[in-house]
Design brief:
lyase, MoaC_sf, 170 residues, cyclic pyranopterin monophosphate synthase activity, MoaC, Alpha-Beta Plaits, single chain, 5-stranded antiparallel β-sheet, Cyclic pyranopterin monophosphate synthase, 27% strand, alpha+beta, 5 strands
Length: 170
Amino acid sequence: MQPKNFWGWPNVASSPALTHLDAAGHAHMVDVSAKAATRRKAVATGAIIMQPQTLEMILSGAAPKGDVLATARIAGIMAAKKTADIIPLCHPLSLSSVTVDLAPNDNRIEITATVTTTGATGVEMEALTAVSAAALTLYDMCKAVDRGMQIENIKLLHKSGGRSGDYNAA
């Protein structure tokens, strides 16, 4: 029988899939100093669904809070740069590039973030954080006219670089 940690979960510190637990089952930041610095890229996506008139207001530039799309794009970029400050145990990274694309489509805005670095650990969390912050910013800037907006399907689409190899969502 495998020992259990504080929450009653099996102590899986030796598992390569769950490396944020130490030998005692406590959370810790993984030491990546022995890993080679390689070019790494991650792409994440998500969407915010809204009333058609809300999307029309955004696209026409008539939102009471100003340029909603530009603000959401900047929020996503800033969030990617600060991911280590808001996600526990996430390594602070020097990012090479961050792009946040916002594509209106029917009654939604589709958000895609692409993040790159050359480093010892990946940028998946930065891409996912960028999408989340952009979606939350869109919600915040339009909630006065559409409280029923829904953020959905935030997920990793692509990851490349590093020891674990490439990943592409099906």
